[in-house]
Amino acid sequence: MKTHFRRLALAGLTTSAVLFSSAASAVEIEYWQYFFDARVEAMETLIKNFEAANPDITVKMTHFPYADYRTKVAAAIPAGEGPDVVQLFYGWLNDYVDAELIQPLPADSFPADKIDAEFFPMVQAMKDGDAYWALPTAVRSLALFYNQRLFDEAGIGSPPETLDELMEVARALTKTDAAGNITQVGITAGMTAQDHHWWREGLVRQFGGEPYADDYKTVNYNNEAGVAALGFYTDMFLGDPPVTAIGFMDEPQAAFKAGRAGMHIDGSFRIGSLNGTRGLKWGVTELPANADGTRSNYSSYWVNAITTKAEGEKYDASVKFMEYVTSDEAMQIWLDVVGELPAKPSVGLTDANKNDETFGPFIRGLAYANTTKFANESDQRQLMVEMVERIQLENMDPAESLAIAAEAEQKLLDEYYAD
């Protein structure tokens, strides 16, 4: 990993240079993130606040569709183009460090012991030795969204508290046409969305297992607990009767936003877009517990980092911008606009926030959440997608499909950590 030092340009000042000093001190830095309406809105507010406090710095924001984002970043920075400050998913950190796309945060502005003390512990995955490479403004957890209108229509008084109640409520909310085709799902399903996180860190643990061992280097779900967890999940669309359908309305979140799903498991980041959906009356509650009352959740986050492109005065400006977007003020704004949870307990665990009707279930979920350490998040997610497809499309026994997924994922982890 290379450390890129700031270059200080020192030169004697002439009378004419002094005349242009104010213009010369102005610096523009570029910030990149993937496109998501609420995230763009929040960052526009943060940039406006930052520029007001730092009139000599201008921040230009650029965003791309999620599908193109990583490719754009990987191509731009080595060419000396693109962002000075970049947003990336926590699971991509190793890739960005290995590719020399980002540089460590300066210890004088971001001392590790201070960050360790002030941020939620999950953030320490961004640390190598005594240096942090990136920091989040917000963190995420999962919760159960429910359609209040559909609940009222079905006479359901409150959201489910347990996994058994989840299935019972889902059955009451599922609708079919005369041919038996599902027209309204009781709960959404799809490993391409957040269900692969719910299955790993939620269901596997609730059925008595631990998804990985050896600090996430060893697959540990190919056992009785994993089979039971997968059986619960596949019963949602293969049971008699089924309460959902894989691929219903293409995307789980689309079905919920369209009012065609009674329940939907998603992240706190979904709040912003749901708030803007006309005619949708929704509520949210913590993920259901198992029969013994055990809850489990998944936590994740996007981080900001300074790229290797940032040097000299752009580096200094980038450090200042990083300090602001990881401040308490920025975290509260991000919570209010996006719905993602503050990365510091000092902001997230205020009485107002943890007891909030909307944010509270997510914030409380952090207390029993685990953060998966991915070698390659997209490839590991795809293995979960294929695991379900083999059961759904090929009628494969769940235990057999689980074993295939476990073997493939272990091979992926072995290859990654061998490098």
Description of the molecule:
Mean pLDDT is 91; it is low at 1-24. This protein starts with 14 loop residues before the first helix and ends with a helix. It has 419 residues and is of the alpha+beta class. It is built from 19 helices and 16 strands. The strands form 3 sheets. Strands 1, 2, 3, 4, 7, 8, 9, 12, 13, 14, 15 and 16 form a 12-stranded mixed β-sheet that branches. A two-stranded antiparallel ribbon has the order 5-6. Helix content is 44%, strand content 19%. The chain has 2 domains: 2-139 and 300-367, D-Maltodextrin-Binding Protein, domain 2 (3-Layer(aba) Sandwich), CATH 3.40.190; 141-299 and 370-418, D-Maltodextrin-Binding Protein, domain 2.
